[in-house]
């Protein structure tokens, strides 16, 4: 459902009605409209719509706004109604209804996303006139960044391996004048001291690599984003069962998310020195595959015992984080589809985040609430540190027992960020299992808008 600027084209009013106000609104209408609404059974529930007749067709459309309690159950109530509207160009009439116009207009626009690489979709015939006070260019920029990430995640691994991800990454960098570089293949990764990225991707047909770009003025605050780019995850020699492997095209969701977020950051011109690092690999099986029990060196100098080859994401992230940390940026942020434990704890809609910085945590929670991009804090629980210390090596990539898996994975990553004053890790799912308002089934752009709001609040005040 596109967003359009104000024009002289005939527009249909969208009148938002809360459930508690419906009877009062009906009482002010003509007998004909009262009879029409009462006969329809319209109750002003969220997502409910009712077209009102006029002399030349539809005079207006009522949109249910439910109650505060109902709206708390899900986001983007305007988007819930958009898919049910007849073709036309609409203008909002919120009346006294509580509404955050910027959030709801963005939700309307996000609901328009369709993945059309393999099957053409029908263009939406429903348009919304951008309300006064809402920055239409910003809405389109946010939607473009989300669509970039969603397209990358939705693309099957056959067409989105490390090579293709590199092309997309380099194209993004070139579009914004960022300085792009890549370390590609085993010999180059060894020479660059990125041994765990090499080990994870050694069995794949396409060479493992580290993608890197830098953007922004040199003396601006340094922010580094690191995204897990496992383009497909078989589990390696600890092979996943078929049911668990079926959706592993999304295991590069962290990479896609930092790319979508970077598209937004650079388009908006945030005043930061942005660095983006993506270890791009495929966790495959061949004679070159890493084995359970192998001990790997790392860029940080720590040794890692591989007790499960299916816990590979933290290995590639660790080398990339160690590289990021050497510059001691003001903030390091990692995005990764890292653990099933995070999904068990919080489900698909609420990614956990980890940080030791209390002020940063508070700012991020506030940002997530303001932009309707939910997150929940989990602790870097230091008493669990012994769980990731196997004795035979410095670290264990897959502690036995299965408890606190999201936390132990986060603790593992924290060992590789020691020089930067602030580290934030987000364990995203990157997928919407069933369609919801403004979130079509498939790839999800999670936590990025919350982080964007955090960055704008902290580093880009005018």
Automatic annotation (TrEMBL):
<keyword id="KW-0031">Aminopeptidase</keyword>
<dbReference type="GO" id="GO:0006508">
    <property type="term" value="P:proteolysis"/>
</dbReference>
<feature type="domain" description="Cytosol aminopeptidase">
    <location>
        <begin position="308"/>
        <end position="315"/>
    </location>
</feature>
<dbReference type="InterPro" id="IPR043472">
    <property type="entry name" value="Macro_dom-like"/>
</dbReference>
<dbReference type="InterPro" id="IPR000819">
    <property type="entry name" value="Peptidase_M17_C"/>
</dbReference>
<protein>
    <submittedName>
        <fullName>Leucyl aminopeptidase</fullName>
        <ecNumber>3.4.11.1</ecNumber>
    </submittedName>
</protein>
<dbReference type="InterPro" id="IPR011356">
    <property type="entry name" value="Leucine_aapep/pepB"/>
</dbReference>
<keyword id="KW-0645">Protease</keyword>
<dbReference type="Pfam" id="PF00883">
    <property type="entry name" value="Peptidase_M17"/>
</dbReference>
<dbReference type="GO" id="GO:0005737">
    <property type="term" value="C:cytoplasm"/>
</dbReference>
<keyword id="KW-0378">Hydrolase</keyword>
<dbReference type="Pfam" id="PF21337">
    <property type="entry name" value="Peptidase_M17_N_1"/>
</dbReference>
<comment type="similarity">
    <text>Belongs to the peptidase M17 family.</text>
</comment>
<dbReference type="GO" id="GO:0030145">
    <property type="term" value="F:manganese ion binding"/>
</dbReference>
<dbReference type="GO" id="GO:0070006">
    <property type="term" value="F:metalloaminopeptidase activity"/>
</dbReference>
<keyword id="KW-0464">Manganese</keyword>
<dbReference type="InterPro" id="IPR048816">
    <property type="entry name" value="Peptidase_M17_N_1"/>
</dbReference>
């Amino acid at each position: 459902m596109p967003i359009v600027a104000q024009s002289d084209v005939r527009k249909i009013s969208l009148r938002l009605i809360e459930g508690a106000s419906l009877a009062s609104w009906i009482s002010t209408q003509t007998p004909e409209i009262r009879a029409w609404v009462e006969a329809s059974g319209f109750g002003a529930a969220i997502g409910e719509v009712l077209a009102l007749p006029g002399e030349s067709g539809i005079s207006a459309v009522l949109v249910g706004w439910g109650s505060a309690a109902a709206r708390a159950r899900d986001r983007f109530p305007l988007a819930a109604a958009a898919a049910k509207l007849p073709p036309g160009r609409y203008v909002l009439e919120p009346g006294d209804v509580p509404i955050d116009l910027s959030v709801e207009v963005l939700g309307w626009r996000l609901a328009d996303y369709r993945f059309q690489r393999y099957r053409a979709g029908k263009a939406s015939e429903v348009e919304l006139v951008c309300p006064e006070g809402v920055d239409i260019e910003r809405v389109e920029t946010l939607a473009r960044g989300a669509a970039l990430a969603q397209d990358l995640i939705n693309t099957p691994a056959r067409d989105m391996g490390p090579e293709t991800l590199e092309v997309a990454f380099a194209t993004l960098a070139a579009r914004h004048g960022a300085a792009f570089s890549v370390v590609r293949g085993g010999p180059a990764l060894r020479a660059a001291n990125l041994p765990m990225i090499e080990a994870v991707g050694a069995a794949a047909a396409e060479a493992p690599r580290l993608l890197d770009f830098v953007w922004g003025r040199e003396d601006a605050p340094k922010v580094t984003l690191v995204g897990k780019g496992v383009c497909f995850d078989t589990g390696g020699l600890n092979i996943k069962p078929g049911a668990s492997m079926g959706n592993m095209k999304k295991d590069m969701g962290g990479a896609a998310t930092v790319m979508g977020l970077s598209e937004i950051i650079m388009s908006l011109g945030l005043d930061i020195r942005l660095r983006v690092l993506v270890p791009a690999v495929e966790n495959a099986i061949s004679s070159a595959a890493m084995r359970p029990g192998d001990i790997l060196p790392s860029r940080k100098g720590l040794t890692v015992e591989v007790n499960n080859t299916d816990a590979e994401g933290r290995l590639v992230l660790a080398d990339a984080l160690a590289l990021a940390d050497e510059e001691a940026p003001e903030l390091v942020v990692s995005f990764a589809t890292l653990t099933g434990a995070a999904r068990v704890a919080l489900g698909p809609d609420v990614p956990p985040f980890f940080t030791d910085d209390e002020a940063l945590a508070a700012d991020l929670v506030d940002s997530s609430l303001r932009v309707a991009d939910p997150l929940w804090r989990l602790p870097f629980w230091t008493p669990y540190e012994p769980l990731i210390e196997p004795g035979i090596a410095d670290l264990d990539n897959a502690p036995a027992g299965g408890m606190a898996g999201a936390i132990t994975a986060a603790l593992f990553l924290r060992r590789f960020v020691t020089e930067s004053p602030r580290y934030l890790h987000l364990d995203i799912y990157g997928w919407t299992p069933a369609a919801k308002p403004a979130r079509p089934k498939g790839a999800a752009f999670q936590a990025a808008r919350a982080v964007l709001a955090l960055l704008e609040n902290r580093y880009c005040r005018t």
